[in-house]
């Protein structure tokens, strides 16, 4: 039986947004934490650490996010853990975001003029103090715009969690479409909701880029 | 952990995986070329066209860049037949990839066109070149050269994103892997092998792009 598309279906879609937002938030916090480690490793004084971080970025940027999600999802079953699609999606997106943010932030750290590094070394500052007090605060300023830009990509990427069975906005759209068979209407609304989330972020990123200048990604 | 890896099923299905990979390569290659063509037209409209055209290009670029590719595929694959346009899964996948790549590349190509100094175009006019000649040789060619790195990394991202079209069961590599998975249940083994194949393909595309750069653009380096 084909159901009508009523306000109940509409609110089902709208309320699914919270799962998209939750997943985006978890992946962003996790990805930022791990991404900072990757960026620091990538710019560290030790060759082996730089190479390891470089390989991490290469692999995660050189393979599809969908495959990464599948590997986390099926990998967890393999070691006998019970697989919660939310947890699998959160871990997969975190690992992926860490590679992208790590690479973006590496560029920001390396964009800090050499004189700043030399001056802080000349002052006898230890690595931790130098990064925390001198380099990272300056890098953070130029990192804001590309990071907000990446956030748009991340919100859109959460739609892939629907493929491993997590009911967020896109999966909710599929469920409603299967019941009502109004694909244009349903996926049009889903697209509009994503647009309402992402467009302000895009505009904000562009505004920041104009203010702080662009950094090559 | 007492799991025993068994790659036998995966390697028995090697021909199917290669067929899937070949479709991924063809789909991506075609989408790159058509997407670039769309992008050049849109960038031209955006920089030279009348105001309504510029608005339309803006609308297209913003809508595509701020919605997920997966939703775009669903709209095309499930939505278009309701409007009387029937596409099979592979055609819908190609269309979605072209529409998606076109929007991202429009922004890149536009940025490239804006790097061309006005004096170059005036010099072209002074030399008596036709408008089309000026656009092709004075504007587009150097613009593409300037944006080549961002354009090609966008292309590789497109190839990786093509795995998402398995959601409408186009028969590319990921869909082949999904079928294999449901027949053999060797999920992890299959996806790790397929992930490796994607990685190899992204390195291959990067290599091909470097060769194309050398063949097409590098000879103009000395003149600069």
Automatic annotation (TrEMBL), chain A:
GO terms for molecular function: transmembrane transporter activity. Residues 17-205 form the ABC transmembrane type-1 domain. It comes from the Bacteria. It is found in: Cell inner membrane; Cell membrane. GO terms for cellular component: ATP-binding cassette (ABC) transporter complex. GO terms for biological process: amino acid transport. Keywords: Cell membrane, Membrane, Transmembrane, Transmembrane helix, Transport. Gene3D superfamilies: MetI-like. Its main location: membrane. The chain crosses the membrane at residues 20-41, 53-74, 86-105, 139-164, 184-204. It holds the Pfam family BPD_transp_1. PROSITE patterns: ABC_TM1. It is a multi-pass membrane protein. Belongs to the binding-protein-dependent transport system permease family. HisMQ subfamily. This is Amino acid ABC transporter permease.
């Amino acid at each position: 039986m084909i159901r009508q598309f009523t306000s109940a279906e509409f609110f089902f879609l709208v309320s699914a947004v919270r799962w998209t937002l939750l997943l985006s938030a978890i992946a962003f916090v996790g990805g930022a934490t791990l991404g900072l480690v990757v960026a620091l490793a990538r710019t560290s004084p030790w060759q082996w650490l730089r190479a390891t971080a470089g390989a991490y970025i290469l692999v995660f940027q050189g393979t599809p996010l969908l495959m990464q999600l599948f590997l986390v999802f099926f990998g967890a079953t393999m070691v006998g853990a019970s697989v919660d699609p939310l947890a699998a999606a959160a871990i997969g997106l975190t690992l992926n975001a860490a590679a992208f943010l790590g690479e973006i932030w590496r560029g920001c750290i390396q964009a800090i003029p050499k004189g700043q590094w030399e001056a802080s070394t000349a002052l006898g500052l230890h690595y931790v103090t130098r990064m925390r007090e001198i380099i990272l605060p300056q890098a953070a300023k130029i990192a804001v715009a590309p990071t907000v830009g990446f956030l748009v990509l991340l919100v859109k990427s959460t739609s892939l969690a629907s493929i491993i069975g997590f009911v967020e906005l896109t999966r909710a759209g599929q469920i409603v479409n299967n019941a009502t068979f109004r694909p244009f209407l349903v996926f049009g609304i889903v697209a509009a909701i994503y647009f309402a989330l992402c467009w302000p972020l895009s505009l904000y990123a562009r505004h920041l880029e104009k203010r702080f200048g662009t950094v090559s990604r | 952990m007492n799991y025993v890896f068994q790659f036998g099923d995966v390697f028995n299905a090697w021909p199917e995986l290669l067929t899937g990979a070949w479709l991924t390569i063809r789909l991506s290659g075609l989408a790159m070329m058509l997407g670039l063509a769309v992008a050049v037209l849109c960038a031209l409209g955006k920089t030279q066209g009348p105001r309504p055209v510029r608005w339309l290009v803006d609308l297209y670029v913003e809508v595509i860049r701020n919605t997920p590719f997966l939703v775009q595929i669903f709209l095309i694959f499930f939505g278009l037949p309701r409007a009387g346009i029937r596409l099979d899964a592979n055609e819908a996948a190609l269309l979605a990839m072209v529409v998606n790549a076109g929007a991202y590349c429009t922004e890149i190509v536009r940025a490239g066109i804006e790097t061309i100094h006005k004096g170059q175009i005036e010099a072209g006019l002074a030399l008596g070149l036709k408008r089309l000649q000026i656009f092709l040789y004075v504007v587009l060619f150097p613009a593409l050269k300037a944006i080549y790195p961002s354009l090609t990394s966008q292309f590789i991202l497109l190839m990786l994103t093509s795995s998402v079209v398995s959601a409408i069961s186009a028969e590319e590599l990921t869909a082949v892997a999904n079928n294999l998975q449901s027949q053999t249940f060797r999920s992890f083994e299959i996806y790790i092998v397929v992930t490796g194949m994607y990685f190899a393909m992204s390195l291959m595309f990067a290599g091909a792009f470097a060769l194309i750069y050398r063949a097409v653009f590098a000879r103009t380096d000395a003149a600069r």
